[in-house]
């Protein structure tokens, strides 16, 4: 049997999150890169085409992702082959980086494997499904069911896609430390101590992950409580060594080393106890002085674990996202007949407003259950009397009975679709685009720029 190629992970995008720092001398602010939310996509199929003569199909699912720039489809990975079934539940999952702010296009191709060849053209095509990762995540229970297409005149069955967030190292801890009888390092005073935390690496090296603030002129400091992610502290390995160094801050940056100790997340998680009182050891002093015991002690005062809530937690908890469009029709945008205008009516491509509507709307619509979007305008003269309005529905409003059932009280609906702001609903982002371009041909750009009416409009519906 053909062994499919192993999935290859895409390059992970990163955002930055900052830790607390001493903020003095050469103790620069640190940043810890946190990867995007990772989701695991499971694939099942029902009623696939039977392409084998004496048995059932031997299906495999191949996932493709579309590039952002060149729009080319790139193979991301393949499931295992399951012999002789039209209703496969694939064991091998697809692990994807999830970005709410991006439209991540996916394509699932299904084949009946007939040989050991990795060349897909050697196998029978069973159909395909196009969707976005946001569409899977935004579905009820993060479970998307779609018909398989791609073979004319054939019912190709159904694919079931389920997304689950990988719950790895999502906890954070809030800790506070104090110290007792630290070594005196300053000639005319005591010490100005601070702590530096390091997590160990597989090769035995250490990576800095946090610095406390400096507490001035004391040998018995109490540092402020600080919050750090478990990922940054130990990368999810509760027994990984955490080294803590104690320094006396100096203005010129030549901070004096007082001593160090080691611990672990598991030890720290015991909280305030005799297990979390640490002797601060200076190896050089210990080697020189036979009667040396320590350079003071550091005590854990508190340890509280907090779970970091993700965007997916809100979605799974029932959070609804409703998308409202408000378009600026003031004359400051320029004459729509001129190429310099943001509203330029180019017959061959989208203008600036059209591109913005499409880019945002195609992402947000995956999370809106009824796909009915209020679309408003402001800053224009409206036909037929030329009145200036800062709160009007785009013309014509692509309204249907779905809006009445989902969002709008029947007694508020006008008898016709004349731009009444009580009836601003458009069917999907394509309906918004259509209403925008038709409104652009009907209204006269004017002014001034007044956001308040459309903001109050949205507020009324939120509070209703």
UniProtKB/TrEMBL annotation:
PROSITE patterns per the record?
C2
The UniProt entry, under SUPFAM superfamilies, shows:
C2 domain (Calcium/lipid-binding domain, CaLB)
Keyword entries, A-Z: Calcium, Metal-binding, Phosphoprotein, Repeat
* Example of a GO biological process term: cellular response to calcium ion
Pfam families from the UniProt entry: C2 (PF00168), Copine (PF07002)
Q: Which SMART domains match?
A: C2
Question: Residues in domain C2?
Answer: 16-146, 155-278
**GO CC entries:** plasma membrane
Taxonomically, the superkingdom here is: Eukaryota
GO MF terms, alphabetically ordered: calcium-dependent phospholipid binding; metal ion binding
Family of this protein = Belongs to the copine family.
> What's this chain's function?
Probable calcium-dependent phospholipid-binding protein that may play a role in calcium-mediated intracellular processes.
The protein, known as: Copine-8
Q: Which organism is it from?
A: Neophocaena asiaeorientalis asiaeorientalis
**Could you read off the lineage of the organism from its UniProt record?**
Eukaryota, Metazoa, Chordata, Craniata, Vertebrata
Q: Which gene encodes it?
A: CPNE8
